[in-house]
Design brief:
alpha/beta; about 625 residues; seven-stranded mixed β-sheet; 7 strands; 28 helices
Length: about 625
């Protein structure tokens, strides 16, 4: 029977009973309605809510699943299913209903933000058109941080039936094999490949096969530039990606072949596949070559934005001297190679404009500014100060701050070893990925502590010795052969890695590392002038020496957090570093290569509630020794 056979007054009466708190009467009416019509939507929703209120989770889920199946376009069933499954810590099962929410209600950014958070921690095992459409919706949302979706995008790309011919083409053993047949037809298909090109616009593709295919494509355009006009959008996409990767591809060109003064948009885009266009004296005149939107987007990325950064350099003042010799060496590295280059920051349209009122935040070693910007956007009433050694990195951050409207962010050049020169103290100090590049990390941590207000919190990030062991083989190879940290040498090293056997441990580790796929990140990963790694036992000693206690550790997957609770039930706070060390020995990917630890002074009750909008520490623990 259909829902029209159910008297409307029955449904209304059940809703009234539920609102009045008479759950028994509401349940009885729902049961009567569903006996007449097993798909009546309001009765199914109420039945699910009643079961959930009584902690009958399986029955609640069954009612909601029945409703979603019978009414696939009713948002409330998919939303309730996703929330139920998240509540019972089954995030993988929440993905499908959340994807449906994204597609049914595309105007709601919160659905995409929640789904993107789930996407970060999983890979696709099978292909579905629903997942493809939902992932594209997330990738096209400018308010999300897209690089965290690169792994799930890559997994779906390899499963997508529409990509099979392209990936087989990219597998061509030589360029000559790649260039055989109807290349123009294949390039047109590539130009229309929304999933691939949307990803390449947003982040690096951590995949040697895709890099190989793009390198071959670039060479084909170089050798057939006279045939490139129909492929201008593709060529501009490729030039934008080459700029993002800092031209990390193996350089096969003959210098004389490239046009040094382009006379067409295709020639300019080709030149932009090999060198940054802003460095040429004619850069600002290139806009006259074409009105094509794709070409002007390329010029925005390769010309206008870098020139904006150069114009911002004089506005960045220094607040401390840089005297330490290691600090000077690190500074030189990041002036040459600002890191990381990024395109999107995590934002939210639901931020309370009063969040962070009266608070001061320090991001020490902010680099190109992503973390500092995210904090400034999430805590719009706080005053955020970003410090870094590298003025070029800070100029990148300053441009992004203008672009995103982060008026509460101040950027200054400074050495954290000289922080006592700062007059301010801070409610939150974040220093992620910095201390391990100091000659004496403990000295850096002590300097930070001097600027932390009473009851303040600190977030630090330190490299894990256990997780980074496979990288040590590569670093030893680099040291043994004295490979210089120059662009040409790094490109040559990467070419040699790609040529290794697929069973080689160095290739296995580097080929899946996101940081392997741009020049600055590869340099930071493998060629850094100063680097320490730690075990959690060493971190424990470091914190004891500085009088700090752990509030929370960032773990990369719920499975690892659950494993800790099961193995160490006597530590419900999950803050004993010796326990986490034992777990990491068994699961080296627990922390993803870097320990992120929330800290406070030993014995203090830290004031952390104000950090909730920024995804910070939850609760108000009293730090123990």
């Amino acid at each position: 029977m259909t829902s029209s056979a159910v008297p409307a007054r029955w449904v209304a009466a059940a809703q009234e009973q539920l609102v009045a708190g008479d759950t028994a009467a509401a349940a009885s009416l729902c049961q009567a309605i569903l006996q007449i019509d097993s798909t009546q939507p309001e009765a199914l929703m109420m039945a699910g809510a009643l079961c959930l209120a009584q902690e009958r989770v399986a029955e609640a889920e069954a009612f909601l699943e029945q409703g979603a199946l019978a009414h696939p376009l009713r948002l409330e069933f998919h939303l309730a299913l996703s929330r139920l499954r998240l509540q019972v810590e089954r995030p993988a099962d929440a993905v499908e209903p959340l994807e449906n929410c994204v597609l049914i209600q595309p105007e709601n950014p919160q659905h995409r933000a929640t789904l993107a958070g789930l996407y970060q921690a999983r890979l696709f095992a099978s292909f579905s058109l629903r997942s493809k459409r939902a992932l594209l919706a997330c990738l096209n949302d400018d308010s999300l941080r897209h690089d965290l979706l690169n792994k799930i995008w890559l997994s779906l790309l390899h499963l997508d039936p529409e990509q099979h011919d392209l990936l087989r083409w990219f597998e061509s053993p030589t360029y000559e094999d790649f260039a055989r047949g109807n290349v123009a037809e294949k390039l047109l298909a590539l130009q229309d490949d929304e999933l691939l090109l949307t990803g390449l616009r947003r982040f690096l593709a951590a995949d040697l096969l895709i890099e190989r295919g793009l390198t071959f494509t670039r060479r084909w355009f170089r050798e057939h530039i006279e045939q490139a006009e129909p492929f201008l959008p593709l060529l501009c996409h490729l030039a934008g990606y080459c700029f993002l990767s800092e031209f990390v591809f193996a350089d096969e060109r003959e210098e004389a072949v490239l046009p040094q003064r382009p006379t067409s948009a295709t020639q300019a885009a080709l030149l932009g596949c090999y060198e940054p266009l802003y460095r040429f004296p004619f850069a600002l005149q290139l806009a006259d070559l074409s009105d094509a939107p794709c070409f002007h987007e390329l010029l925005r990325v390769q010309v206008l934005e870098p020139l904006c950064e150069q114009a911002l350099l004089p506005t960045i003042s220094s607040v401390t001297a840089v005297e330490d010799e290691i600090s000077k060496a690190v500074q030189a590295q990041y002036e040459e190679s600002p890191y990381p280059r990024w395109r999107s920051a995590g934002q939210s349209g639901l931020v309370d404009p009063t969040s962070g009122a009266g608070r001061r935040v320090l991001v020490a070693g902010c680099g190109t500014g992503r973390e500092a910007l995210e904090l400034a956007l999430l805590l719009p009433a706080a005053r955020v100060l970003g410090l870094d050694l590298s003025r070029n990195s800070l100029a990148y951050a300053a441009r992004k701050a203008l672009e995103l409207g982060a008026a509460n962010l101040c950027l200054r050049q400074a050495d954290l070893l000289e922080l006592p020169q700062l007059p301010e103290t801070f409610d939150l100090i974040s220093c992620v990925g910095v201390l391990h590049h100091l000659q004496q990390p403990v000295r850096g941590l002590q300097q930070l502590l001097k600027r932390l207000r009473p009851r303040g919190a600190m977030l630090i990030g330190l490299y894990s010795t256990i997780a980074r062991r496979p990288l040590e083989l590569a670093r030893q190879w680099i040291a043994r052969e004295r490979i210089a940290p120059t662009p040409a040498a790094i490109r040559g090293f990467r070419t040699r890695v790609a040529a290794l056997s697929d069973l080689d441990p160095i290739k296995q580790r580097l080929a899946v590392s996101y940081d392997f796929y741009s020049l600055s990140s590869c340099r930071d990963l493998l060629f850094h002038v100063q680097e320490h790694t730690f075990t959690l036992l060493q971190v424990k000693d470091l914190l004891r020496e500085c009088g700090l206690s752990v509030l929370n550790l960032d773990v990369k997957s719920r499975a690892h957090a659950l494993a800790y609770r099961q193995r160490f039930p006597e530590d419900p706070a999950a803050t004993k570093l010796e326990n986490w060390h034992a777990l990491e020995l068994d699961h080296p990917t627990t922390f993803g290569g870097l320990y992120a630890l929330w800290l406070c002074r030993r014995g203090e009750a830290p004031d952390v509630d104000w950090l909730r909008p920024a995804g910070g520490v939850t609760g108000r623990p009293v730090a123990q020794g």
